[in-house]
Structure formats: structure tokens, C-alpha cells
Design goal:
By secondary structure, this protein is an alpha+beta fold. The chain has one domain. It is built from one helix and four strands, in the order βαβββ. Strands 1-4-3-2 form a four-stranded mixed sheet, covered by helices on one side. A hairpin with a 5-residue loop joins strand 2 and strand 3. The termini are far apart. The mean pLDDT is 92.
Length: 103
């Protein structure tokens, strides 16, 4: 299980990865944050993000199950490859679409 405080992975402006090696991971986490914060408000969030894992060097075909935990952390789970994680520190970032968030 991944347990991520996304702020630790971001640059000083908190709008992109701190290092190039994190670019794709930050992009996927941003998709998860945007999707769940829109979906939570009943707004169109588009398709649920897909799993990005590559078990045995083949793309996982799973569609993520994403929900908020009681402490407002975001939990995602792939029912196909069983990858999962928790995202903390997402509030107020550019990808946070919650009501009242100023970007």
C-alpha cells in the first residue's frame, strides 16, 4: 500500500513534481484528486481513473475504486492488481476541486 503526502512529491509552487522521475506518478495522483473532489460534489468528473500499474510489464486493465476516508484522506484501490494507496495533503492544491477552494 502506498501512503503518500503528495506535498512531499511537489515542487515549491505545489503544481508539479519535485523531480522529473515523479512526473507520471504526480499526474496520476492529480487525476485521482480531481476526480474524487468533483465526484464528491455531484459534478461530472468524467471517467474514473484507470490503474497505472504494469504487473509483469503489461498494463493493468483495472478501474480504480476511489473514496474519502473519515479523516479526509483519499483512498484508492484497484480490484484487478490489488494496488492501493492513501493520499494525504491534497487539500488546497491546484487539483482540489472542492467547494470554496481558490486556485
Amino acid at each position: 500500500m502506498w501512503v503518500i503526502d503528495i506535498r512531499h512529491w511537489l515542487n515549491k509552487q505545489q503544481d508539479g513534481p519535485a523531480v522529473p522521475q515523479l512526473r507520471l506518478k504526480v499526474k496520476k495522483l492529480a487525476e485521482i484528486i480531481t476526480w474524487i473532489t468533483l465526484h464528491d460534489q455531484g459534478l461530472s468528473a468524467g471517467d474514473v481513473p484507470k490503474c497505472w500499474r504494469r504487473p509483469e510489464k503489461k498494463s493493468c486493465k483495472g478501474i480504480l475504486i476511489i473514496r474519502f476516508e473519515q479523516d479526509d484522506r483519499i483512498h484508492w484501490f484497484c480490484p484487478v492488481c490489488e494496488d492501493e494507496g492513501i493520499i494525504d495533503g491534497w487539500q488546497g492544491l491546484i487539483w482540489d476541486m472542492s467547494k470554496g477552494t481558490i486556485h
